[in-house]
Amino acid sequence: MSTSPTRGPAAAPALAEELRISIARLSRRLRRLKPAGPGAAEPLSLTQFAALAAIERHGSMTPRELADHEKVQPPSMTRVIAHLEAQGLVARSPHPTDGRQVTLAATEPGRTLLAEERRRKQAWLTQRLGELTPQEREILRRAAPILDKLSKS
Amino acid sequence: MSTSPTRGPAAAPALAEELRISIARLSRRLRRLKPAGPGAAEPLSLTQFAALAAIERHGSMTPRELADHEKVQPPSMTRVIAHLEAQGLVARSPHPTDGRQVTLAATEPGRTLLAEERRRKQAWLTQRLGELTPQEREILRRAAPILDKLSKS
DNA sequence: TATTGTTATACTCTATAACTATA
DNA sequence: TATAGTTATAGAGTATAACAATA
After folding, report:
1. Which CATH number fits domain A42-152: 3.40.50.1980, 3.40.50.150, 1.10.540.10, 1.10.10.10?
2. What is the CA A13 to C1' D5 distance in angstroms?
3. How far apart are CA A85 and CA A80, in angstroms?
4. What is the model's pLDDT at position A118?
5. CA B98 → C1' D2, Å?
6. CB–CB of B151 and A25 under 8 A?
7. What ranges do the domains of chain B cover?
8. DSSP chain B
């Protein structure tokens, strides 16, 4: 019988299962949140929001870069971008040197909406985080970049 | 202009956005993992796996309890259970006193498969976790139950 | 020939609404 | 009337395959 250690590298499989299930569960819980309020414009899905936030943060990005960044396949990102563009939140422009590529940038309404969503749509999670102890928030704050590191590999 | 603190309760909105995006991205990354190897039986989706694991851990559960536990609606859990039952991984039995309820328990093949999946299907995440520093793993170990607490609210 | 991006199509997961059976 | 579970149906999100344009 294995002794199933709870610490050290050998505990990785047990931690993997716990994390995998916890992440999936919280992901479902978050996705279920009804977006924004009655007065809101067409709401953004989480993927759309993340894509818009990434575009704004990087200044400009190509669809391929976005797909890699958000861990979806290019055709999936095409749909996300189409939606953002239809809403006037991002604008395409031709790549300066490579005719195949497209450059995406946030429009002024896009930046406005982003700020608004940040203020309002994340209310649920913000509220829950506020109910944690400072120590717990600190752990999550340190965990977030590690989760991103895992996503990247 | 707000100063956007990075620590303390007031930082919750910023942390909320970071966590929300990180969780969604890692969730997509994990879901994309191609399950098991060539010799494997019909693979389990992550939700199916989590349900089976919960049933085994609790000894027995009702569909309603499972749905609440995994943050899905009852009809969604019905499908998950139907799949597990069709594969012979869980068995239903009538509730001892309440004729409406159903009791679910893992079968012997179910327990076997669970052990096998634990050993094999989580290889990717286990590998990635093994590449982290012990300090990083420790942070994730502490973060996992906090994520669960967030899911529960 | 390789790469970017798109179109067409299909699948997985989950939800809501309506129904049945039991309490 | 209220609750557990199921059936029927629909929608969101993402994937793969095939194609067009450019390098």
Report:
1. 1.10.10.10
2. 35
3. 9
4. 84
5. 14
6. yes
7. 42-152
8. -----SSSGGGHHHHHHHHHHHHHHHHHHHHTSPPS-TT--SPPPHHHHHHHHHHHHHS-B-HHHHHHHHT--HHHHHHHHHHHHHTTSEEEEE-SS-TT-EEEEE-HHHHHHHHHHHHHTTHHHHHHHHTS-HHHHHHHHHHHHHHHHHHH-
To the nearest whole Å, the CA of A137 is away from the closest chain B CA by: 8
Which of B13, B53, B136 minimises the CB distance to A126? B13
CA distances from B45 to A29, A123, B31, B84, B91 (A): 17, 30, 8, 10, 18
pLDDT at A2: 43
pTM of the predicted model as reported, rounded to 2 decimal places: 0.86
Encode pLDDT of B69-105 as tens digits.
999 999 999 999 999 999 999 999 999 899 999 999 9
Show the tokens assigned to B75.
């009809």
Cβ atoms of B102 and B64 within 8 Å: the answer is no
> For B67, which residue in chain A has the nearest alpha carbon?
A25
